[in-house]
Write a structure and sequence with these properties.
135 residues; alpha/beta; Leucine-rich repeat, LRR (right-handed beta-alpha superhelix); four-stranded parallel sheet; 6 helices; 4 strands; globular; disordered C terminus
């Protein structure tokens, strides 16, 4: 079965009534993720998205942070495991999640396992937060 074209993914995100979408293992890039995040804002139905095992790095983590910063974002579960997000990206996402929890009480599950920043951090608070919040 051929991989879906990015335009098909974007159209699905805009029009779906499903709460869970899975786009794992599709070789999506940071640029693709930027477009996906833009469309996720426009659909109030999608609460969970799988973006595991793609080609997402720290730039993609910034797109996730921007998505989570938008008050229209309704996502509550994001799977980013198996990408190439480094320490900087992991920390940015953790900081944004902490901010959301403190300011609005919103708790969002983000799986960051098997990313370089998950295991290679020297700051003790980051793995503790990930281990606690992200399973």
């Amino acid at each position: 079965m051929p991989l879906p074209h990015l335009n098909d993914i974007l159209l699905t995100i805009l029009t779906t009534e499903y709460e869970h979408l899975d786009y794992g293992c599709l070789s999506l890039t940071d640029l693709d993720l930027e477009k996906i995040c833009t469309k996720l804002i426009e659909n109030p139905n999608v609460k969970k998205i799988g973006l595991w095992m793609n080609n997402i790095n720290d730039e993609g983590a910034e797109h996730i942070v921007n998505l989570l910063s938008d008050p229209r974002c309704v996502l509550r579960d994001i799977n980013l495991s198996g990408n190439n997000i480094g320490y900087y990206g992991v920390k940015k996402i953790c900081d944004k999640l902490d901010e959301l929890e403190k300011t609005s009480g919103v708790k969002i599950k983000v799986n960051l396992r098997d990313n370089p920043g998950f295991n290679q951090t020297n700051e003790p608070s980051v793995p503790r937060k990930i281990g606690y919040r992200y399973s």
